[in-house]
Amino acid sequence: MSEVKFERILVAIADPAAPSSKAVRRAGALAHKTGASVEFLNAIPSVVSSGIAHVESERFTRFEVQENHRLLERTANRLRREEIIVNTHVETGYPAHEAILRHVRLTKPDLLIVEARKHNVFARLLLTQTDFELIRRCPIPLLIVKGGAAWRRPRILAALDPFHTNDKPRELDTEIVAAAQAVAALVDGSVHAAHCYRPPMRLIAGMKIDAKVVAAIPAQERAYKAAVRRQFYEDLGRYGIAKNRGHLRGGDPAIELPAVARTVRAGLVVMGAVSRSGLRRVFIGNTAEQVLDSLRCDVLIVKPPNRQ
Length: 308
Description:
Elements lengths: L7 E5 L9 H13 L2 E8 L6 H30 L5 E7 L3 H12 L3 E5 L1 E2 L6 E2 L2 H9 L4 E4 L9 E5 L10 H18 L2 E8 L3 E4 L7 E4 L2 H22 L6 E5 L2 H11 L2 E7 L2 E2 L4 E2 L3 H9 L3 E5 L6
Parallel strand pairs: 1-2, 1-4, 2-3, 4-7, 8-9, 8-13, 9-12, 13-16
Antiparallel strand pairs: 5-6, 7-16, 10-11, 14-15
């Protein structure tokens, strides 16, 4: 199990002019608990142009860098008054996630924090394409801040996959639990675990067409559920999580995991992301995207050790 530490925290701030930031508050609270230093990063998309337009865009970018750095310093001073070490940096690049990832590789922080923002007329907190690119490619733990309330003895929900579907390595569940327990120790929280699995299906021959997918027969379904339950609770024992803090749900994970998080009133959900062989990219499918967008609380994304 890798040691989880938060000694250097990087906060990517999309809008330095915003009057308040949940990501900044979360970083400040963690810094108080750990003694970590904090860095605020604002990534400005650079403009590709030529001729006179290039000169003007360069001039505007320089002005924007100076102004955003001033705004970052204003926010940093609030944390410095609380005796937290804070640095600020403005990075240019296109797209923004590339600038953020470049800074992560250069400075090697222990944790990257970003904030989910409201994007539509219904004011839902949804993730941007930048967020999903960071989920796919960020080599360090990524904390996506959605909830505004402070963590006070929070319930932390570790999303496990005992059967390691989609080529997930066993070490990933270990890293998820280690991260959940590390945060819980810092904020006096409790660790819960959830596994949401799809019902078993079987193939039958179609009428001179393709095979058809149908629900498994009752005996197969009972055996499958028993195997899932047995493995899930064996894993809880191995990780030192009490059975009454285990939550096993059958159904669509995109629906069931957010439902479990709401039921236990989780302040944080810890999830894993894995790389695909050859591509070295993290696979984020429709289900994972729906889960991430549906969760109302903060989400911590971790990767398997040495597989970023």
